[in-house]
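Good morning,

Attaching, inline, the C-alpha cells for the sequence recovery test we're adding to the shared suite. The designed sequence is right after.
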C-alpha cells in the first residue's frame, strides 16, 4: 500500500500556477489557488520558470512552438472540466465529487458553489498534504468534505456514504489525471462505486489516456515513481462506462480542447489525453 503523497500532484499544480501567471496559450485561464497550494520548493521552481520564460521577447512563443502545445494539457483539461461542471450546475446538480483530487483548487475558486456540497476524494497521504497547503484558502462551497480513500485498497462507496454524499440526488463527478495510474481492476471498481452512488441525472467527466505515441510524456511519471499503468483506448473507455451503467455523451481530444479554448495556432497533436462525459 502506498504511504507517501503523490509526487505528480505538485507538478500538475505547478503547471496550473504557471498558466495562471500567463505561461499558457489558453484563453481566460485563471487559477489563483494553484500557487498557494504548492509546497515551498515547487513554488520556487514555478517562480523561476515564469521569470525564465517571460524574461526575453519571443522566449514564450519559442517554448510553445518546441513543446507543440503539450505544456497546455493541464490548463486545457481544467477549462474543459470546469465548463462541464458549470453545465451540470445550470441543470440543477448540487453535489460535486473530485475523484483523486490531488491539489485541486476547485472548491476554493469556482463561483457556482454557494449551494453545493463538494467532496474531495484522494489517497490519505496526498490528502494530508492538500489539507496542510489549503489552510489559508476559504472554501466557496456550502459544504466541503475531505474523503480519504486508497482506490486500490478501500471501498469508495462506503467512504462516500460515511462522508455524507447523497446517492439519492444527482452528482457530478470529476475524475481528472487519475486513471493512467490505476490498474484496470481499480478503474472498474471505482466506476461501479460511482454508478451505485449516482442518482438519475448524474454525470461523470473522466480524463483518460490512449496507448501509443507518447513515449516522451511517459518518461516523467516514471521518473517520479508513478508510471502509467492504466492506459485505455476509446473503445475500452466506452465499454467500461457502459458496463457501469453510464451512457457516453461526448468524448473529446486535445485538438477539440484547443479549438474551444486556445488562442495559439493549430498544432500537431502530441498527446493522447481525452475527456469523456457520460450520464447515468
Amino acid at each position: 500500500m502506498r504511504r507517501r503523497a503523490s509526487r505528480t500532484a505538485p507538478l500538475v499544480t505547478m503547471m496550473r500556477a504557471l498558466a495562471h501567471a500567463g505561461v499558457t496559450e489558453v484563453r481566460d485561464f485563471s487559477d489563483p489557488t494553484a500557487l498557494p497550494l504548492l509546497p515551498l520548493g515547487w513554488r520556487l521552481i514555478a517562480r523561476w520558470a515564469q521569470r525564465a520564460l517571460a524574461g526575453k521577447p519571443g522566449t514564450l512563443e519559442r517554448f510553445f512552438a518546441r513543446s507543440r502545445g503539450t505544456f497546455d494539457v493541464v490548463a486545457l483539461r481544467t477549462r474543459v472540466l470546469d465548463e462541464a461542471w458549470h453545465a451540470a450546475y445550470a441543470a440543477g446538480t448540487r453535489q460535486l465529487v473530485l475523484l483523486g483530487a490531488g491539489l485541486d483548487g476547485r472548491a476554493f475558486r469556482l463561483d457556482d458553489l454557494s449551494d453545493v456540497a463538494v467532496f474531495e476524494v484522494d489517497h490519505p497521504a496526498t490528502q494530508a498534504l492538500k489539507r496542510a497547503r489549503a489552510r489559508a484558502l476559504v472554501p466557496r462551497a456550502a459544504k466541503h468534505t475531505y474523503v480519504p480513500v486508497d482506490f486500490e485498497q478501500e471501498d469508495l462507496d462506503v467512504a462516500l456514504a460515511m462522508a455524507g454524499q447523497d446517492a439519492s440526488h444527482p452528482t457530478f463527478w470529476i475524475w481528472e489525471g487519475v486513471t493512467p495510474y490505476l490498474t484496470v481492476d481499480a478503474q472498474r471498481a471505482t466506476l461501479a462505486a460511482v454508478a451505485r452512488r449516482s442518482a438519475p441525472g448524474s454525470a461523470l467527466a473522466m480524463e483518460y489516456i490512449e496507448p501509443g505515441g507518447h513515449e516522451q510524456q511517459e518518461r516523467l511519471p516514471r521518473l517520479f515513481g508513478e508510471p502509467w499503468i492504466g492506459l485505455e483506448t476509446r473503445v475500452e473507455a466506452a465499454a467500461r462506462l457502459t458496463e457501469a451503467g453510464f451512457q457516453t455523451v461526448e468524448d473529446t481530444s486535445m485538438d477539440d480542447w484547443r479549438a474551444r479554448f486556445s488562442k495559439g495556432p493549430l498544432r500537431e497533436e502530441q498527446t493522447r489525453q481525452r475527456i469523456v462525459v457520460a450520464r447515468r
